[in-house]
Specification:
- With 539 residues, this protein is mainly α.
- Among the domains are: 140 residues, no CATH class; 82 residues, no CATH class.
- It is 45% helix and 6% strand.
- Helix 8 runs antiparallel to helix 9 and helix 17 runs antiparallel to helix 19.
- The longest helix is centred in the first third of the chain and has 26 residues.
Length: 539
């Protein structure tokens, strides 16, 4: 099994090196050892660069599939399952089983297998760096501090993703110290020869230790090259997410404030520019998708980019929850991210009243109907084959509309940090502080925003939930938000079709419903001698 992780590290070097041409030209790829891959700080940085790419790339990993390309796939999937992103039609089938709540409850399905193995790939790669530096007693200068800081951050991030997904939520668990979590590894071996399930508490203890070490290392580190690297701000953002999911409200608020330092919120022009660049002002962490490593029809914009020229978008425009949109005040410029009266041009739309002006209640004549569709296609640089639909999103736009050209993926923004602060202070019943955090975001998006009307804890939490749904639409938070809030899933009034969504239309709250916890991949159960069927999540 050690050979497998060595090969994974080598693949990182070979596929993602770019700046290591001399190394690769003088060393046969079939003879590169783990020692060579970890022989110098420069090569360790190449491994980290590989992880940056693995956040979105199609490079195959042990036990995983190219068709589930890291966060490019999982963020839209989480929002499809969490009811944030509404599918208007069956489309070409991509993510249909996700939104129908079929994928994650099957131990043999591709998506839960990929989440598991990709996250453990990050852990094994981080372990290899951390262990090598310690074993070889390598000097820790500013460059090595950057490497270690990012390695510890990736390990914390990966474990947090795993424990939130394959174990019962910390806040709804009767006892996190006995609740089964995921295997906790410190070796560089692949996970399926590793350990049994550690408790949720043990995983969180390690996560918190790692992220604090990351922040400490990054304080003394050379500055990151770009936003795809994990900076100290990004590490604080990960810390804020961890604390929020655990209910450590004071830590969540303070870490979020540190994460957003130096980042201004996007103004209206930036906000409406398509969310396609990791250089937007408030982006703390994002993936820069380079041409040679694009993931084409498994790309983030393939799922969510309104004008991406792929069958998933052309036939299945994504909607916001209709009731949420209708609650937005007209003075909020985020209303421009969705088109409530776009003509329903798809006769296969799931709500059953699309295809022509005769079945679309917003239009009285065929000429009006066709003119509205053509105007939208022109304004947003869509192709003639793109369908439109009421409440469709125009938040995510390809910079080169009507193509499959790659665009960046955003993982963390300053807006999220303000919302974490607001939620944490609300949960502490610190009304003034929660209002202050909400006011910064709210008044930027809506000059008429009046935070004074949210004067109680309940009112503040309702507003935080509303703002997260609008502000973070399509950015992958809604599934885990439901777990933290212990909220049921109910698509009534959202615009979702109960026929299309099936089991994903309604689900009981997570504390009463074990289906919010994903199945451990059957491949892991079969291959890991420390796991048996008794360790599988039960429904």
């Amino acid at each position: 099994m050690k050979r497998n992780i060595f090969l994974a590290l080598i693949a990182v070097l070979v596929i993602f090196s770019g700046c290591s041409k001399d190394f690769l030209e003088t060393t046969p790829t079939d003879s590169i050892s783990a020692e060579a891959a970890l022989s110098s700080p420069d090569n360790m940085m190449l491994i980290l660069n590989g992880l940056h790419r693995q956040m979105y790339s199609q490079s195959p990993l042990e036990g995983a599939s190219w068709s589930r390309t890291g966060q490019s796939h999982f963020l839209p999937s989480y929002d499809a399952m969490g009811g944030n992103v509404i599918h208007s039609s069956p489309g070409n089938g991509w993510m249909r089983s996700d939104l129908q709540w079929q994928t994650h409850i099957s131990a043999t399905y591709t998506t839960p297998r990929n989440v598991w193995y990709q996250r453990y790939h990050f852990i094994a790669s981080a372990n290899s760096i951390i262990n090598k530096v310690e074993e070889a007693q390598m000097p820790v200068d500013a460059f090595m501090s950057n490497i270690l800081g990012q390695a510890h951050a990736y390990r914390a991030w990966a474990y947090h993703q795993l424990v939130m997904t394959y174990a019962k939520g910390y806040l709804i668990s009767a006892d996190p110290s006995t609740e089964p979590g995921v295997p906790l590894l410190f070796t560089t071996e692949a996970p399926y020869t590793s350990e049994g399930r550690s408790s949720v508490q043990a995983i969180y203890d390690q996560i918190e230790k790692d992220i604090d070490m990351s922040i400490s290392y990054l304080a003394d580190a050379t500055a990151p090259n770009n936003n795809s690297h994990i900076s100290q701000n990004a590490a604080y953002g990960i810390k804020a997410r961890i604390a929020l999911s655990k209910g450590d409200w004071a830590v969540a608020a303070s870490a979020a404030a540190e994460a957003r330092k130096g980042y201004s919120l996007m103004n209206e022009a930036d906000y409406l520019s398509g969310f396609n660049s990791y250089n937007l002002p408030e982006v703390i962490w994002g993936g820069h998708v380079i041409d040679s490593e694009t993931n084409y029809y498994a790309a983030y914009f393939y799922y969510l980019g309104t004008n991406f020229n792929g069958s998933q978008n052309r036939g299945n425009p994504k909607m916001i929850n209709n009731a949420i949109y209708d609650a937005l005040p007209a003075t909020d410029y985020r209303t421009k991210l969705w088109l409530p009266t776009a003509p329903n041009s798809n006769k296969n739309a799931s709500n059953g009243w699309g295809g022509s002006y005769e079945t679309d209640p917003n239009y009285d004549t065929d000429a009006e109907f066709k003119a509205a569709k053509a105007a939208i296609q022109t304004e947003y640089r869509m192709t003639s084959g793109h369908h439109t639909h009421p409440y469709m999103s125009v938040k995510f736009l390809n910079a080169n509309g009507g193509t499959i050209d790659p665009d960046d993926v955003i993982f963390m923004r300053a807006s999220e940090m303000y919302l974490i602060e607001a939620e944490a202070y609300a949960m502490l019943n610190m009304v003034t502080e929660a209002q202050a955090a909400l006011a910064v975001l709210g008044t930027e998006r809506n000059p008429s925003y009046d935070v004074s009307v949210f004067g109680t804890q309940d009112a503040l939490m309702a507003e935080v939930k509303f703002q997260r749904h609008v502000e973070l639409w399509g950015e992958g938070f809604s599934f885990h938000d439901h777990i933290r809030w212990n909220d049921p899933l109910d698509q009534t009034g959202s615009g979702a079709s109960s026929v299309l969504y099936q089991n994903g239309f309604k689900q009981d709250r997570p504390s009463d419903n074990p289906k919010w916890v994903w199945k451990i991949p059957q491949m892991e159960i079969d291959a890991n001698p420390n796991l048996t069927e008794d360790d599988q999540n039960k429904y």
